[in-house]
Specification:
The complex is a heterodimer of chains A (about 210) and B (about 575).
Chain A (H helix, E strand, L loop, with lengths): L8 E5 L3 H13 L4 E4 L2 H7 L6 E6 L7 H10 L6 E5 L4 H9 L4 E4 L4 H33 L3 H12 L3 H8 L3 H15 L4 H20 L1
Parallel strand pairs in A: 1-2, 1-3, 3-4, 4-5
Helix pairs in contact in A: 5-9, 6-8, 7-8
Chain B lengths: L1 H17 L7 E7 L4 H18 L4 E7 L4 H8 L3 E4 L1 H9 L4 E8 L11 E6 L14 E4 L5 H13 L10 E4 L7 H7 L4 E5 L2 H8 L7 E4 L19 E4 L5 H12 L8 E4 L5 H9 L12 H101 L5 H27 L8 E4 H11 L14 E4 L1 H19 L7 E8 L2 E8 L6 H5 L16 H11 L3 E6 L5 E8 L8
Parallel strand pairs in B: 1-2, 1-3, 6-7, 6-8
Antiparallel strand pairs in B: 3-10, 4-10, 4-11, 5-8, 5-9, 12-13, 14-15, 15-17, 16-17
The chains are: A alpha/beta (about 210), B alpha+beta (about 575).
Chain lengths: ~210, ~575
Amino acid sequence: MKDINFEYLVRLIDDDESLLRALSIYLQMLNIPTATYRSASDFLRDDPKGKEGCVVLDVRMPGMSGIELFEEMKRQKIDLPVIFLSAHGDIDMAVRAVQQGARTFLEKPPQREKFVDVISDAVLWHHAFRREKAYLIRLRKQWDSLTPAEKQVCEMTVKGLTGPRAAEVLGIKDKTLRAYRMEAYSKLEVENIAELSDFLHEMKSLEEKLMSE
Amino acid sequence: MCLRKFFGVFIAAGLAASISAAKEPVFTVGLVDTFSPDFYVNTYSETLDHLSEILNSYDMKVVEIDYRNIQEELKRLKPDFLVSSASDYVALMAGIGAQQIATKRPVSSESVSKTVASLFLVLADSPIRSLADAKGKNVAMTSKNSFDGWLIALGEIAAQNFPIRNFFSQYIETHYAQPDVIAQLFSGKADIAVLAACEFEKMLENGEISRKDFRIINEKSSGAECRRSTERYPDVVFSAMPNVPSDLVKKISVALMTMQDPRGEFEWTVANEFKPTFDLMKALSLPPFEPQPMSIARLWREYRTEIVLAIALLFALLFHIFTVNILVRRRTAELSESLEETKTFYQQVQDGKQKLLSLERMNVVSQLSSMFAHEIKQPITNISYYLGSLKLFLQEKKICDELADMLVDSIDSELNRSTEIIDKVRSYAKKRSGQKEVFDLNDVIVEMLKTQDDGAVYFIPDGVKQVNADPFEVKFIVSNFVKNAFAAAHKSSPSSVTIEAVPDGRYWRVNVADNGPAIPDEVFSNLGKVGQSTKDDGLGFGLAIASGFAESMGGHLEFARLSPHGLQVSLLIPKYLKNERH
């Protein structure tokens, strides 16, 4: 198990209690914290979803199936990465699940080492995802504290339009423009055009990245 | 003397013709001769003499009308007056409209309408006692055209309801010559003779025959009159043609009525009863009642109504046959069409059933191996992970033992081998790749219901229910539900199975409910798992396979116990949304 120095939880969901027990005992031996659920609805109802980690999900379950739960999670914007376990080797189902955002599709019995690797990858990914998401939220918040005029000035500046030309385009006085820029720099905690450019670039690329995941 | 007179008439007529230009006007008397020669002498010539004497301002012509062709002869000779027997008279009266002006009455006759008759005569020793006995015998008569010498006799036979045609076996006509009818009797050629009444008496009077030698058959006479075997009819009729001027008719009538027979044997008077004569002619089918040769014109004239009716009937019949034919053809066509439809329908049902069956078989194998894999892999996974835990435990406890390592590794490798075997087995069963398409759930359910024949299922489709799945898999699932439902419901009476398809959030829910027996908790919780059959003969694969299909189409199965007993099995399929990628 790769070094993980943050709090997380691996959720195991399967209708077979014996399997839940075998898997959780093994993972706990490796100091991987686990929570087990015997059905999709148990998970949806009881799980502390704010906690980072991942979900290990059996495809075939009575009532709501693994695939259905996965779709329900997407609908509820539960961002936990999902690792499917299937005894069927149903390629169609695996392809579809992965296409729709499942992280991995493992056939039963998953090789122990590989299983642990997949889990830790997922947990790390989720940790990074949550962190980036939090960072993006912070950047977004800073950016949204700007007035529309300030945002306009910032975007002009990044495009290379500065001074009187920009003021002309925006139909404001050069002095006013400079006042706006000073205010924006202060709000965004940047000191020059290069830092402003970094800020906007970082925010946009993070937005794109998280959106695609 | 009379003969002389008679010929004198002819001579006078010839003279009259030669000087006709000076002597005006002319009238013609015609004779239809069916009489005995006596009539010429004793009646006819006397009458003509009298007429020519009274009507001396007229030129009187005398013609003879052939009795065999009266109609033609009348047209040719155009007589104004006719002398004929009563039988010929009634024919002429009904035909061209001749009208009696006088009828001969012999003084011996009490009534002018009842004068002439016939007599059946046999030899005294003849076995013939009645007319019935005479049937098939030989008969002799003077002439078949004689009214009283034959026709009246024949009428009597008809009156006794014997068939007159070929009543006798042989008919001997003597034509007023020798050997006469009496001679025919004596010679044995004839068994029975027909005479005009009074002829017998005349012959007796003349001493020609002896009374004791003969017997009269069917005698009807009484008192002083001549002996007879038949009813009596009028004698000779003097009639006027319709076109004769009434003045002349009157003159002739008066002349006849006032005529005095020189010998006082007869007088001309008026007969007022011809109906018996009509009836006689009718019985004998003689004119005016003779069967006329058939002609289309006559047929049309006499049977117009019947012909029209018959033709109408024929047309109606033809029309009926025609319409019936058309109807039969149309019905036959309709019938064969519906038969074809029924056949096609059953073929489709059969095909559908076959398809479903083969699909079921194929999928039983596929799903069986798949489920076997699933089920066996569960414990294998567990063993593998317990083994992993054990390994970790040994490490944690710092137990480093070669034997322990070897044992753990061996178990691991056996586990891998088991997994490989399972994968190999499973690969034998080719997986049928589901053909997804967008369709209306109702259609598939209705079609599926066609293939099930366990009993009545009530399903009322309501609104379009689009899904994106493999229709065969949906059919398989629902038909499995229905089959199970019937198997359970048949244990209850009355059994009831209902099916419905309703919306349920983002799913369509197909519920199949039965009123089968209550299901114990243990059985209920294992529904849909491999090897858990609620049916006595079930293997418990149906629902497990259905479950696999449901999952592959992004749905699942649900089970609910009904109160007081029975089960509801549900298939939940995601609704198809138009922007969904397929």
